[in-house]
């Protein structure tokens, strides 16, 4: 499977004036739960989930749902429209779709995703058993959020049973008949029986919401069928640049340092994307790949596709600032609401500036449970 190379520099469009870009112009089922989960909690003007209140630092209100929708769009833009990178087989009589990399001999590559990013140099643990060639029957989406990924997968794979779980009941009332949502905590023991094992498990943007990633991966490993795939899609909460201009973005640099500190004190580290590959290998996954994509923050890239991705990325990252900052800084670092607002204003001012050529790395990390592995007899994982 062709992969991107995050080590090649992105050329800068010196004629770009992205500071004039109107970022606001881009913002535009079965559900099983107890009634008590809708007894939301409110803090600093934002709404938070009631189920396992206080364990998750991000809001779940309409503003956050809009952010998740735009983030879903950005993940697809970066991957060339694909919903997953793991090579999931399809039914022979089922037409391939643009969201299925296994249906094409050329999945998102340097030429069709980031044209200035050449062949991948990310670490890949290449083994045998790369594809079980049996179409999946059950897929689990951990932390499904608004359920957009699960719904699109259900539409693309109509013969597969898709289950999405989340702490918040913010999924739509309607979903395809093969898609169901349940309120559940991925950090608790999973209650699926061995007969309910999954062919593919997907997790996206769980950084900052999981306290014990190795345990989460062990649970995923346990509840996969032999030969099944796990995939984590995460972005780094750390900005970079090819021309070292990010070092001049003092407010952003301070923000990401404090965000890292606060999330660690909270017990759920934020910037985990670069660590997942090694964690998966340690937990026994084979054929582990970490496909990394550069996402410019703003339309400063010379390449037209990267310029468009960067404009969407800019809006998305601007929307990230408040939900990632407010609870952690006020609960953990002792900021008042007003202090947090003033602090975030400085961060946003640098993000909208055209003085810096910032980008963020997005990771699509996927690996396979060995064919010889046995499914555990229960979901109890130490």
Automatic annotation (TrEMBL):
GO molecular function: methyltransferase activity
Residue ranges, annotated region (Disordered): 85-140
Pfam families: Methyltransf_23
InterPro entries reported in the protein's UniProt record: SAM-dependent_MTases_sf
Lineage: superkingdom: Eukaryota
Biased composition (Low complexity): 95-112, 119-134
CDD domains: AdoMet_MTases (cd02440)
Secretion signal, residue range per the UniProt entry: none
Name of the protein described by the UniProt record: Secondary metabolism regulator LAE1
Highest classification ranks of the organism: Eukaryota, Fungi, Dikarya, Ascomycota, Pezizomycotina
């Amino acid at each position: 499977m062709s992969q991107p190379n995050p080590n090649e520099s992105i050329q800068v469009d010196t004629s770009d004036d992205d500071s004039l870009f109107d970022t606001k112009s881009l913002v535009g089922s079965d559900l099983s739960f107890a009634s008590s989960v809708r007894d939301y909690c409110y803090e600093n003007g934002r709404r938070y989930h009631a189920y396992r209140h206080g364990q998750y630092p991000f809001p779940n209100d309409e503003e956050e749902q809009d952010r998740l929708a735009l983030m879903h769009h950005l993940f697809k833009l970066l991957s060339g429209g694909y919903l997953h990178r793991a090579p999931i087989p399809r039914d022979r009589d089922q037409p391939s779709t643009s969201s299925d990399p296994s249906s094409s001999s050329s999945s998102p590559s340097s030429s069709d995703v980031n044209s200035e990013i050449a062949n991948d140099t990310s670490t890949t643990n290449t083994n045998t058993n790369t594809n079980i060639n049996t179409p999946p029957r059950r897929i689990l989406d951990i932390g499904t959020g608004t359920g957009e990924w699960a719904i699109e997968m259900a539409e693309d794979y109509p013969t597969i049973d898709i289950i999405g779980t989340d702490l918040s009941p913010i999924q739509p009332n309607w979903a395809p008949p093969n898609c169901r949502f349940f309120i559940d905590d991925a950090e608790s023991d999973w209650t699926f029986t061995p007969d309910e094992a999954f062919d593919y498990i997907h997790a996206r943007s769980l950084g900052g919401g999981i306290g014990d990633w190795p345990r989460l991966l062990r649970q995923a490993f346990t509840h996969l069928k032999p030969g099944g795939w796990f995939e984590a899609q995460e972005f780094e909460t750390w900005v970079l640049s090819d021309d070292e201009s990010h070092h001049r973005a003092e407010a952003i640099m301070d923000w990401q340092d404090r965000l890292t500190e606060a999330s660690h004190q909270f017990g759920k580290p934020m910037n985990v994307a670069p660590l997942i590959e090694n964690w998966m290998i340690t937990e026994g996954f084979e054929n582990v790949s970490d496909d990394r994509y550069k996402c410019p923050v703003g339309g400063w890239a010379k390449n037209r596709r990267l310029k468009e991705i960067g404009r969407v990325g800019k809006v998305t990252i601007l929307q990230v600032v408040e939900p990632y900052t407010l609870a952690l800084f006020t609960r953990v670092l002792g900021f008042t609401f007003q202090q947090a607002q003033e602090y975030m204003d400085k961060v946003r001012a640098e993000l909208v500036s055209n003085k810096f050529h910032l980008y963020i790395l997005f990771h699509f990390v996927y690996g396979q449970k060995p064919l010889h592995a046995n499914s555990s007899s229960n979901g109890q994982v130490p």
